[in-house]
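Worked problem 6 (solution included).
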Amino acid sequence: MLVVAVAFLLAGISKGVVGMGLPPIAIGIMSFALPLSDAIAIMVIPTITTNFWQAFYGGHFRPMMRRFWPLGVAAAAGVILTGLVLGKLGSSGAVAWLGLVLVLYATIALLAWRPRTPRASEGWANPVIGVASGAVAGVTGIAAIPFLPYMQSLELTKDELVQALGILFVFITLALAVALVGQGTFDTANVAGGVAANVPVFFGIWLGQKLRRAASPETFRKVFLIGMLAIGLHMARSFL
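Solution. The predicted structure is:
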């Protein structure tokens, strides 16, 4: 319980400072004390509640929904199909793959690699990226690759990006819940843990918003990414 509370407190702080990072931080830390399947199941409810707020707050909900619903639907389908067909979501063998995803995500972000995707390409890119990201999330529980680099490659303002991410994470997390129910992992204990985790995560978001005014968000982002890189390397060590 202490590990879960600390995981969501730190994940909430990250979300409060830089607007993202809740699933990778929460799952990465919880995986040290819980089976990956339970960590993903507990993560579902706090992620949905925080991202509902992020999706609707900001004044860009309708244009972002019109622009990215194909990505959201494709990602949800990828999660459900991969999770139910392969049945590997949160399995012990998925831990190393999750570590690899975290390493790739942190490395790309630390290198500040910013590809550019023209708006005209979104018609085919949104569903393709959605299915690929959903397939990754259907095994690891996190849709960081190629989803986040793709979203950052689009010509979106900071506020549009934050709100679009909130919308898409709602699609992905609801699909994860469906896949976990299909696997029998989303049980009463994990639901109760997820509901209770809202307390530390929202307290963390409040603290993060305070820290945003006192510290550089860019410095915090680098610290967060280095931490994710270290956790990812530890989880991916079985590949070595």
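Discussion: The CA atoms of residues 12 and 202 lie 6 Å apart.
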